[in-house]
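Handout, page 2. Input:
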Amino acid sequence: MPLIYTSLLISNFFGLFYLCIFAIGYVAYTFIVKFKFRFYIITTSCMYLIIFLQPDLVSTMISLISCRQIGEDFFILNNVSVECYTEQYNSYTYGLVVPFLLLWILGFPVIMFALLFMRRTELEKIEVKNKFGFLYGEYNQSTFYWEFVKIY
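Output:
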């Protein structure tokens, strides 16, 4: 596997790694301090992480599928040592980059929006505010979704 695609895999799994490190640290903290474990802290951290990592990962993936012409040949924007429209380029683009791109552009935002939308009538409840309040806190009940419009 070419290094640029290995780098993409590592970058995508670093989010999961960050979340695991945070979760382990949080569990250890609750155990040591004898603090009540609150699952919403993990879910909110996961959403923050997705929102934080998405722009850079999407930008990297778009540069991996974008091609530029140099002379007679086409090379990917991210690394001119990899030629576009070859069998290797097509297999990595459609087998690796496009699925991850769809996950980050559509999958995560739709899941987060759906979770919030299902609780749209409960936005004033403390459990919902703890999990999703950072997404709708500055808006009124009828425009709770507006943060998704701004972000995506």
